[in-house]
Design goal:
The complex is a heterodimer of chains A (about 500) and B (about 230). Chain A is α+β, with helices and mostly antiparallel strands. Chain A is built from twelve helices and twelve strands. The chains are: A alpha+beta (about 500), B alpha/beta (about 230).
Chain lengths: ~500, ~230
């Protein structure tokens, strides 16, 4: 810590006094020129240790002291002889020069340190904004960073539509001036304290770079603060960097959207292709069966008629399941698919789903085991039930009759797991990896069904996987559980 | 003969519903609009209404809200898979039960029979209730399952009592929360989940496969009525 001004002048006086004491001790052993060197030592020491003013004061004090105490005639400021004139003049010149030299070195060092600090600050800003996300998220993060690092309240203004939207940190939105931000954006230059424009405002505001998205940064300054030109240059660089980060994010978003749109398009095409097959097959069966019954019912033996009627029911049930899947697929593949999530008990969802499935597949043995006291999951119950239905359908299709299916649920490391094991034909390790790929078709609606399972589970923040067992296959769903709020009254 | 009003604008469904009701010994009347339904109800009050939620001239939920005060017959709502929210709103507005399209005749007739049985039973709430192995005495507040007394906490009792007031009827989450916890708590679904879990643990043999306290997924609960 540097000493205060009065202290520094005190030290300057002390240094001159110390040089005088030393010279008194050396007096008689040295010429006046030699004593001048002793004083010069004090001058150099004070120049290095003290600020420029006190340093200069020390120089003047030393020259005066040498003159007064040691230059003949002693104890007066008169100077007797040209040699002493020279000695004093050289001492004075040397001491002021050294002072100036040290001061300029010090300024240069301070500037270098400041530049380093500013570069570090810019680097920290770019680190802080590297996370990505979305333009508004980035704008808010930038405002928070600016608030921490620079102003006692900071805002980032972003053009959305034809209005500026403010993202603020550290102060109320009302503390900032949207009109000032708009002015800065329109005129392309900073305003506020220390600027040519709007210098009465207690804030500083600068637009993003010209080619960046339209927007500005603004922060509140402490009363009396007056940023220097150099500091404002640095702040401009910060404004530019915030703008560029947001620009990058927007560009990335556009690219992501384009990729998603292309993927959705491909998915739609594949879906349409597979649907036209998967829909037509059961429809053909329905139509054929119905017309057979209508035209030939009288000739058919009752057993065969019953069989055809049962087929009609089965086929339309399959079509219904498929329609449900298509409906959910359409809903979940939308970019902003909203789940109707609620606190659901896994036990309830599985219990209901399994009860329904037992009705649907009377010949299938479905065992259900749920660990008591499972934490609730934040889920859309109908979708989870549909996942279970799809998995059971799939298991029944790939098991020799009568199919045997075990459904278990329990606690996993970070949530709840649901496992579904069949004793069917099983799958290879390689098939297990691609089983959930969208629109993979291996005989009927099941291909679509497994793709929906994956979509639904992932929309709930969970994972689904299949692994071969001996015999059969196990599907495992992992769902995150959230801690529920405090126990109700 | 039991008079059932079927309000459905899709003629295929109206026909098959009417045909199966007739075959089951009931007397169906069908109409395709809310306006026509108003007229039919005015002409003669039905014993049961089967109502499609997607009518051309009026929203089914509004129809129920409008008719509920004067209509004593129970209402069975038919909803499509895309009308989940309306289905719940209809139940909240006073519908008694629902079927999601597509449904089978077996399902339809089971619901219709149960609703008619309830409507004809002694005016509820009955002082004593016997469902399978479950016996509930409203007056003495005693509940016994498989011959053993079950001790309920006050909130558990309130919840059970609310369900027992109309066995077989679907009660939405919202209705149960409002009646048991209060109108300002209708969004606290987890209260309901927790207490339903407690109740099942005390009453059901296998809480995951309940016999009495039935879940209507995404809609609400009902107490089994047989």
């Amino acid at each position: 810590m540097r000493l205060s001004r009065p202290h520094q002048y005190g030290i300057a006086a002390l240094a001159a006094a110390a040089a005088t004491l030393a010279s008194t001790a050396l007096d008689g052993h040295m010429s006046v020129a030699g004593l001048a060197l002793v004083y010069l030592l004090a001058v150099v020491a004070t120049a290095v240790a003290l600020d420029r003013g006190p340093g200069l004061a020390a120089s003047l004090l030393c020259v005066s002291a040498l003159n007064f105490f040691f230059v003949p005639p002693r104890y007066s400021f008169e100077i007797d002889g040209a040699e002493y004139w020279w000695t004093l003049a050289v001492l004075l010149a040397l001491s002021t020069w050294i002072n100036a030299l040290v001061a300029s070195l010090r300024t240069r060092r301070a500037r270098a340190e400041e530049a380093t600090a500013q570069a570090a600050q810019l680097h920290a800003l770019s680190e802080a904004l590297a996370g990505g996300g979305s333009a508004p998220k980035l704008a808010l993060e930038a405002a928070q960073w600016l608030h921490r690092e620079i102003g006692h309240g900071a805002a980032v203004f972003l053009h959305e539509g034809d209005a500026l939207r403010a993202f603020v940190a550290g102060a109320d939105a009302s503390s900032f001036q949207a009109s000032a931000a708009q002015w800065a954006v329109d005129h392309g230059r900073p305003l506020g304290r220390g600027c040519d424009d709007w210098s009465d405002l207690p804030l500083w505001c600068a637009p993003f770079a010209r080619h960046a998205p339209r927007g500005a940064v603004q922060w509140l300054l402490h009363p009396g603060a007056r940023p220097s030109r150099e500091l404002q240059q640095h702040w401009l660089a910060i404004a530019r960097q915030v703008g560029l980060a947001i620009d990058r994010e927007r560009a990335a978003q556009v690219a992501r959207d384009a990729v998603a749109a292309a993927q959705a398009e491909t998915a739609r095409n594949t879906l349409l292709a597979s649907l036209s097959h998967d829909l037509r097959t059961p429809l053909a069966a329905l139509m054929g069966t119905a017309s057979t019954l209508r035209t030939q019912a009288a000739q058919l033996p009752p057993a065969q008629r019953d069989q055809l009627l049962a087929n009609l029911e089965d086929e339309s049930r399959d079509l219904t399941a498929m329609a449900d899947n298509i409906l959910q697929l359409a809903r979940l593949s939308q970019p902003q698919a909203q789940l109707r999530r609620q606190w659901e008990s896994v036990e309830e969802v599985l219990g209901t789903a399994v009860a329904r499935l037992r009705n649907r597949w009377p010949g299938v043995r479905i065992q259900l085991r749920v660990t008591p006291g499972l934490p609730p999951v934040d889920a859309e119950a109908a979708l989870l039930a549909q996942v279970i239905a799809n998995l059971v359908d799939n298991a029944v299709r790939h098991s020799p009759a009568p199919a045997r299916i075990e459904v278990t649920a329990g606690r996993s490391r970070d949530g709840v797991f649901i496992a579904l094991r069949d004793h069917g034909e099983g799958i290879s390790e390689a098939a297990a990896a691609t089983l959930f790929e969208p629109y993979r078709r291996d005989g009927g609606a099941a291909g679509l069904g497994l793709a929906i399972c994956k979509l639904v589970v992932e929309a709930h923040g969970g994972r689904i996987a299949a692994r071969p067992c001996d015999p059969g296959t196990e599907f495992r769903i992992d769902l995150p559980a959230r801690e529920m709020e405090a126990a109700p009254p | 003969m039991t008079d059932v009003l079927v309000v459905e604008d899709e003629s295929g469904i109206a026909q098959f519903v009417a045909a199966s009701l007739s075959a089951a010994g009931l007397r169906p009347r069908t109409c395709a609009t809310a306006r026509a339904a108003d007229e039919e109800i005015r002409r003669q009050a039905p014993e049961l209404v089967i109502l499609d939620l997607g009518l051309p001239d009026e929203d089914g939920v509004q129809f129920i809200a409008r008719q509920r005060a004067s209509l004593t017959a129970p209402v069975l709502v038919l909803s499509a898979r895309t009308q989940e929210a309306e289905k719940i709103a209809a139940l909240d507005a006073g519908a008694d039960d629902y079927l999601t399209k597509p449904f089978g005749v077996g399902e339809l007739l089971a619901r219709v029979r149960a609703m008619l049985r309830r409507a004809r039973a002694a005016p509820l709430p009955a002082p004593r209730l016997q469902i399978g192995d479950l016996a509930f005495d409203r007056a003495s507040r005693e509940l016994a399952v498989r011959g053993a007394q079950v001790h309920l906490t006050p909130v558990e009792f309130k919840l059970f009592e609310r369900l027992a007031r109309s066995p077989g009827k679907v009660l939405t989450h919202r209705q149960l929360l409002a009646d048991v916890w209060g109108a300002d708590q209708v969004d606290q679904l987890h209260y309901l989940r927790i207490y339903m879990g407690h109740l099942r643990a005390k009453i059901e043999e296998d809480p995951a496969q309940p016999r009495y306290l039935l879940t209507e997924l995404g809609v609400g609960y009902r107490l089994a009525d047989e």
